[in-house]
Specification:
- This protein is α+β, with helices and mostly antiparallel strands.
- The protein is 22% helix and 36% strand.
- The relative contact order is 0.21.
- Part of the RNA polymerase complex.
- Pfam families: Fer4, RNA_pol_A_bac, RNA_pol_L.
- One of its GO terms (molecular function) is protein dimerization activity.
């Protein structure tokens, strides 16, 4: 059977979709790829020229490293491990400068990047509050990396899935116990007995409380082992749609590489 994708919700930062006619292993590989194998840019090193704020240099570096960077032209860059340079060059790093003096709140929008395509995904992320006569002057160096190496390169911040439920009702005696036990309120009674509204089926959490409450075993709740409901959230490095596409491309590239290796054995 052909794999199928049904998009339920899609916005710039989040998405929900159903992946069906596939295996748990493939569904999990998509989840892992979105979290760990899609490359992004993140601030990885600092040259601090002046810091009279209340934060230590290391604390300031941690805050800057966790600012998501939008990466429109990431394919134009290589990772430091793959680059032929020894100390960083325009092929593997982006310079981002910050010069601020108090009193003011410094935001991610105050960062100035040498590449217009590598910018903070949000301009309103607070970095530090500077008081009177406090200054911060620094150069941050952003490098390309993967989420599996460090969380600062993790483009997907909340990517998960669950099996779709299979709910069957047979010979219901209309006692209503399953309706009262369902924590999501997706079961109702009609003239024929207990029913689940198709539009509410996605809300089922597979707790099986309705099944346990039924004294005549009229209702059964199982997992569909070939269909999965995905919930995806991007940190802003990519749109949610591009994050999903990049995850699929990553898996495809790995599969192609393995096939080439096996063919050469």
């Amino acid at each position: 059977m052909t794999m199928k994708v049904d998009m339920l919700e899609l916005s710039e930062r989040s998405a929900r979709f159903v992946l069906s006619n596939t295996t748990p292993a493939f569904a999990n590989s998509i989840r892992r790829a979105m979290l760990a194998d899609v490359p992004t840019f993140a601030i990885d090193d600092l040259n601090i020229y002046n810091n009279t704020s209340v934060l230590y240099d290391e604390q300031l570096g941690l805050r800057l490293a966790l600012i998501p960077l939008a990466t429109e032209n990431i394919d134009d860059y290589t990772t430091q491990d793959e680059c032929t340079c020894e100390e960083g060059c325009p092929s593997c790093e982006v310079s981002i400068t910050l010069s601020a003096e108090g009193p003011k709140m410094v935001y991610s929008g105050d960062l100035i990047s040498s590449d217009p395509g590598i910018q903070p995904a949000d301009t309103n992320i607070p970095i530090i509050e500077l008081k009177e006569d406090q200054r911060v002057v620094l150069e941050a160096l952003a490098h390309k990396g993967l989420g599996k190496d460090n969380a600062k390169w993790q483009a997907g911040v909340a990517c998960g899935y669950k099996n779709l439920p299979l709910i069957r009702v047979n010979n219901c005696d209309k006692c209503g116990l399953c309706v009262s036990e369902c924590p999501k309120g997706i079961i109702y009674l009609d003239e024929e007995g207990a029913k689940v509204a198709d539009e509410n089926l996605m809300d089922c959490i597979l707790c099986k409380l309705c099944e346990e409450a039924c004294e005549i075993d009229a209702i059964s709740v199982k997992e569909d082992e070939s269909s999965f409901l995905f919930t995806v959230e991007s940190d802003g490095s990519y749109s949610s749609q591009q994050l999903i596409i990049n995850a699929g491309n990553t898996i495809k590239a790995k599969a192609t590489e393995m096939q080439e290796i096996l063919n050469n054995l």
